[in-house]
Amino acid sequence: MLRPTVSPLDKRDLLVQVISASVYEADYFPVELGAASRLTDSFPRTPSVDFSSHVVAVGRKVIDIG
Known about the structure:
Elements: E1 14-21, H1 25-33, H2 37-40, E2 51-58
Antiparallel strand pairs: 1-2
InterPro entries: GroES-like_sf (IPR011032)
């Protein structure tokens, strides 16, 4: 997997370093569905909605992250 860098950061992007993450029901539910999850999920899929992070870089046009 490619590691993101600051250089190609779009003016509206925010780059964060995830410090810790928890497993949320939405993360493991597709695994329980098996092949059937391919019918309902779109790819690429971004797992984990609950995490703690540090802001590494901010695009020029970012004015709020809340």
